[in-house]
Amino acid sequence: MKKIAITLVALFTISCLAISQSIIVSETPAITQLVEKHIELNRAKLTIDGWRIQLFATTDRSKLEGARGTFINRYPNIPVDWVHASPWYRLRAGAFATKLEATRMLNSLKIYYPDAYLAKDKIKTAELLNSRI
Question: CA-CA distance, 121 to 53, in Å (whole number)?
Fold first, then answer.
């Protein structure tokens, strides 16, 4: 019992000391300028490297449009679009910043799209913010 009381008093003392301390951070103007420049460059960036889920690929555009319509009916909250790189039409869903986020969604889509896989892509920052479900 005595050990518990001593431990509690020690913890209380340490927490009081930690609360009463304050930290002052000062930086040189050069560091401030670098941070501001970094923020400015990031705001000017329109795309980031991200991930999408490729659901379907075909050379027939009408099949692609049918698959797109079916996907929209099943998953109305997930953005979907297609890309054409001759001769292939590729149906891709989502806009994810990390592979982990994309993998979570891929696992849930595998029910209807067993051949779906992750694809790296340039993601517009506005599109990325709108894809949160």
Answer: 10
